[in-house]
Amino acid sequence: MRCPFCSSDDTRVIDSRLGDDGASVRRRRQCQYCNERFTTFERAEISMPWVIKNDGSREPFDEGKLRRGMLRALEKRPITAEVMEAAISRILRRCADRAEREISSKDLGEWIMLELREIDHVAYVRFASVYRRFQDLDAFSEELDRLRNGPAPDTGTQLSFLENGRRRRRKR
Q1: Which of 34, 80, 140, 158 is least surrounded by CB atoms within 10 angstroms?
Q2: Are residues 128 and 102 in the same domain?
Q3: Cα–Cα distance measured from residue 153 to residue 83, given in angstroms and rounded to the nearest whole number
Q4: Domain co-membership, 131 together with 79
Q5: Position 70 in a domain
Q6: CA angle, 138 as apex, 132 and 144 as ends, to 5°?
Q7: 42 contacts 25 by C-beta, under 8 angstroms
Q8: ∠ Cα 76 80 82 (to 5°)
Q9: Same domain, 107 and 143
Q10: What is the dihedral of CA 3, 7, 10, 14, to 10 degrees?
Q11: By the 8 A CB rule, do 123 and 73 touch?
Q12: Average pLDDT value over all residues in the chain
């Protein structure tokens, strides 16, 4: 790392800590030539896939667009910023983990709806009404029925520690 004061290449790290968001590393450095100290931040650069739109056009993934869509759906709902940010992080991780360098806007929209369905049903219906372009009240009603009658959210595959309100006893 080059010193911002004297441009020397001879610097050393004197302290490293996780950044405030946990996704970066804050490094305190000292120049060996002029002894000035300065701070740098290191963040992993993740290449997000391109988004293939319904009309076949391609555009770079835009985290701001994802965030605005989630905010619009969750507007005036009792959901904390932390819950929303966690959902956005899961969607971003899912996009980055894909082996393909392109993702369809349809897949991305479905992932957003899955997250919103877990967070808040009203936000889910808001997003679905725009995303699925409901043309009439019947289409809207069908989506509400799917929401009401759909499978319960997956709570994982872990077995319950308690069975019928009592502890299981091991046979000896």
Answers
A1: 158
A2: yes
A3: 16
A4: yes
A5: yes
A6: 65
A7: yes
A8: 140
A9: yes
A10: -10
A11: yes
A12: 81
